[in-house]
Amino acid sequence: MAFQFISESEADTRRLGLALGALLFDGAVVALNGPLGAGKTRLVQAVAEARGHDPRDVVSPTFTLIQEYRGARPVYHFDAYRLRDDDEFLNLGPDEYFYGSGVSLVEWAERVAGCLPAEYLEIAGRPTAPSMREFTISGHGEPYAAIETELAAALGNWAT
């Protein structure tokens, strides 16, 4: 099962991220897929905000590959865009983050799909107009299927 969330503005994308951030458990992994401009970093900013971080501190980690937002509810923000292969991603030590005390969000996750845990939440974004985005959310594994269902119920803007 999957559902679609239609974002007509950055405020809608923020609403999705805030709702998601409230539902994620420690050790949760979110795979963010989609082209440039799909809203991936905006979504991470809102998830971080929901977990108690200043969203202005959240930037794309394209050149550093991972940003760590520490605190009571850590957020680990990966960017696989510039990675050449799975080995480069594995050298970052993702398992320490994936099974740690925070949540891990991986932008361009399709590039390192073989490195993701068996269970995760996938969010595929795509721009549909200058200020509109379509997000398809699917849970892989029971805890993520539950998040998908709860997120759909919380947002009310969805279609299967």
Structure keywords:
eight-stranded mixed sheet; Rossmann fold; 8 strands; 5 helices; 160 residues
Can you tell me about this structure?
The chain has an eight-stranded mixed sheet. Helix 1 packs across helix 2 (40-50) and helix 1 (10-23) crosses helix 5. Strand 3 and strand 4 (75-79) form a beta hairpin. The chain has one domain: Rossmann fold (3-Layer(aba) Sandwich), CATH 3.40.50.300. It starts with a strand and ends with a strand. 31% of the residues lie in helices and 29% in strands. By secondary structure, the chain is α/β, with parallel strands linked by helices. 42% of the residues are buried.
Q: How would a crystallographer describe the biggest sheet?
A: 8 strands, mixed
CATH topology: Rossmann fold
Number of helical elements: 5
Q: Which oligomeric form is depicted? A: single chain
Shape: globular
Helix content bin? 25-40%
Layout of helices and strands, plus pairs?
Blueprint: E1 2-7, H1 10-23, E2 29-33, H2 40-50, E3 66-69, E4 75-79, H3 86-90, H4 94-98, E5 103-107, E6 120-129, E7 132-140, H5 142-155, E8 158-159
Parallel strand pairs: 2-5, 2-6, 4-5
Antiparallel strand pairs: 1-7, 1-8, 3-4, 6-7
In brief, what are we looking at here?
31% of the residues lie in helices and 29% in strands.
